[in-house]
Amino acid sequence: MSAATAPCLPAAEKLAQLDPENIVRIALEEHSPDISVAFSGAEDVVLIDMAAEVGLPFRVFSLDTGRLHPETYRYLEQVREHYKINLEVLFPQPEAVEELVREKGLFSFYRDGHQECCNIRKVEPLRRALATVDAWITGQRRDQSPQTRTAVPVVELDSNFAPAGDH
Questions:
Q1: pLDDT digits (tens, 9 = 90+) for 145-154
Q2: Top-confidence residue, 109 or 3
Q3: Is the pLDDT of residue 129 over 90?
Q4: How many Å apart are CA 91 and CA 25, to the nearest integer?
Q5: Whole-angstrom Cα distance, residue 155 to residue 5?
Q6: With the CA atoms of 13, 144, 72 and 126 taken in that order, what torsion angle do they form, in degrees rounded to the nearest 10?
Q7: CB-neighbour burial class of residue 50 (10 A; exposed 0-12, middle 13-18, buried 19+)
Q8: What does the longest C-alpha to C-alpha distance in the chain come to?
Q9: What per-residue confidence (pLDDT) applies to 5?
Q10: Helices then strands, each counted (H, E), the chain
Q11: Which backbone phi and psi does 18 adopt, to 5 degrees?
Q12: What own/partner pairs with CB < 8 Å and gap ≥ 24 does 122-125 have?
């Protein structure tokens, strides 16, 4: 869970000792309805399931980079229908994508790295989504990237996406 407000350290340490279901429940109790689950695929559906079990209002969003597979769109619809949720799908700003493609082609990320493309296709839409909530729940599996995620805390102040003035 990431939040726009800093959790007190002892509370964060206590949460780290809880199972994921209780962490999600506490997050919803503290932030509902101004909390969103970031959904990017099969592994994140467990977060939606946990949140739905709590019974408090929450939002769900997914980022459509413009490069998703047809199977991903079908899965988004299956999740929407199964949980009876309004799954908000956010897209990159068309003008930014058009300019990138016009200037550098469709596959510039192979040459230039992923930063510019990801900023346009992922970071900016994520920033827009998070500007509308007080907190968000996102799944980050430590085993997927041991070099960068082994110390991912259960709760953290997300200064990268906090509204201006909240840093």
A1: 666 656 777 7
A2: 109
A3: yes
A4: 29
A5: 11
A6: 50
A7: buried
A8: 50
A9: 46
A10: 9, 6
A11: -90, 165
A12: 122/63, 122/65, 122/92, 124/92, 124/93, 124/96, 125/63, 125/90, 125/91, 125/92
- Tokens 């700003």 locate to 93
Calpha distance 6→33 (Å, rounded): 18
What residues contact residue 153 under an 8 Å CB cut-off, 6+ apart? 12, 16
Q: Region 79-95: what's the mean pLDDT?
A: 96
Q: pLDDT tier at 111 (50, 70, 90 boundaries)?
A: confident
Query: Could you tell me which residue, 6 or 44, shows the higher pLDDT?
Result: 44
Whether 64 and 89 have beta carbons less than 8 Å apart is answered as: yes
Which amino acid appears at position 53 of this protein?
E
pLDDT band at 167 (very low <50, low <70, confident <90, very high): very low
Q: DSSP assignment of 54-108, as one string? A: HTS--EEEEE--S---HHHHHHHHHHHHHHT--EEEE---HHHHHHHHHHH-TTH
